[in-house]
Amino acid sequence: MRKIKGKSLMTAAEIDLVLTRMAAEIVEKLGPEEAFAVIGIRRRGVPLARRLCRRIEAAVKRPVPLGILDITLYRDDLTAIGNRPMLRETLIDFDIDNRSLVLVDDVLYTGRTIRSALDGLVDLGRPRRVQLAVLVDRGHRELPIQADYVGKTVQTEEDETVEVRLEEEDGEERVVLLGKTQPAAGTRKARGAKSPGRGGGA
Amino acid sequence: MASLSQKDLLSIEQLSVDDIGLVLDTAEALREVSARAVKKVPALRGKTVINLFFEPSTRTRSSFELAEKRLSADILNFSASSSSVTKGETLLDTARNLEAMAPDIIVIRHASAGAPHLLGTECRSSVVNAGDGMHEHPTQALLDALTVRSMKGRLEGLKLAIIGDISHSRVARSDTLLFHKMGAEVWVCGPPTLIPADFHLLGARVTGFMEEAIEGADVVMMLRLQNERQNEAFIPSTREYFNLYGLSRERMRGARKNAIVMHPGPMNRGVEIESEVADADYSVILDQVANGVATRMAVLYLLSGNSGLKPGRESR
Q1: Do B38 and A123 touch (CB under 8 A)?
Q2: What's the burial of B182, exposed, middle or buried (CB within 10 Å: 0-12/13-18/19+)?
């Protein structure tokens, strides 16, 4: 496993605690509703959504549908960038019409990923309402978008990167803040420019 | 990030194993779009695609058109009958004129092998070969591979039998190249008059006996007997052809259990394939059509980031 240096923002225990709290908040707000569902944004929103969903189901004692959304086709920078981002399947096998949805992502940054996600959802139907849950809100919004459920709010510089590392994707569990000189994680290239779905979320 | 190693999609020959895998993975992700109530995504919004068909085509052309529309591209259609080709313009001049309209992608079908290559060399736009003469039909091979991979879970180690008019078939060439590249065992079979002498060089095993080709096959791919191309010079009669090279239920018994039957269409029922076989539940002919749209969407999506690269790049 590749070592990532950087300032620790959350430990595994903290992530666990925060997800439990967020699940409780979601249950409090949406629990009484008949039809609501959780939708994870690829990639790291998916394991987070799955964990939230499990906790919510335990609380409301009924199955809560879980969907997976790939926002690639809806990115606003597709024309600007040369290489095509890797497409993955959107898997939402239930009707989203008249349903309340909780979108889940790891990091809220520029808000562009969420804008893309909203466009993607609208093409699939007309949800009753859409709420947003993120593990980390790191500020620097470029669009008027805000989260309904936030795990942790962090003050960052624009050229820093917030890395959420999850057991399911990365084999470890923590959130770190990377300085401007350090490369972003995995096979992903370090980027100064902000873009959705990359370099610590949008 | 994911991109093809090429500006154009001219042939399977020029694609790497990674390229092929990338197209198939992308196509798999895009299949979901066609299952939606609103079958449209904005990925190619603002891009212009020119469909340049010098040969008649219904299904390939509709498939490309649908793929382009589902990706929100703007489309311009040229066909041989209505274009200036009939007025004596050379392909090169046509290409330069099209280039002046600044399209992002040109899809071309032409009766001459190499026409897409010429266009790709001349144009900054990405060029997609939708069939050139007896050379290649790369998107057909890619959609066949997607169909097989979806049914069998893999390509490697499968036995594929391609049966029929191998000589005139660009599908046979592209499929042979692709499946061989991906580690499948490819057999081709047909009347000796309809198999090029050097076809084994593409990586296929060649036989004149259908039983040998089908024995233990996981996939049986039938080709259309191209009546319009052969004027009785190659086979004595279609009846004899069916007896020796037609796919019947009886013959299918030689294939592996769970084998699938494919056909790039249009079918001649009773000539190369028995009606009952074409309609059997192991026939995936209509899956091929559905996968065709997803595959072409994938190709267009992957190439749409490449236009603007320098033209005239060596194609390998």
Answers
A1: yes
A2: buried
ipTM, interface predicted TM-score of the complex: 0.77
Give the integer Cα–Cα distance in Å for A58 and B215.
54
Residue ranges and CATH numbers for the domains of chain A are 18-77+84-158 (3.40.50.2020)
Mean pLDDT value across residues B286-296: 96
Residue A146 has pLDDT above 50, yes or no: yes
- Nearest by CB to A83, from B2, B45, B46: name it: B2
> Given an 8 Å threshold on Cβ–Cβ distance, is B40 in contact with A124?
no
Q: Please give the model's pTM, rounded to 2 decimal places.
A: 0.87
* Residue bearing the bigger pLDDT, A179 or B16: B16
- CB within 8 Å: A89 and B29: yes
The yes-or-no answer to whether B17-135+292-303 and B138-289 have a common fold is yes
CATH number of B138-289: 3.40.50.1370
Judging contacts by C-beta atoms under 8 Å, the chain B residues touching residue A124 are 36-38
Q: Comparing B91 with A10, which gets the higher pLDDT?
A: A10
The CATH architecture to which B17-135+292-303 belongs is 3-Layer(aba) Sandwich (3.40)
A80 CB neighbours in chain B (<8 A) are none
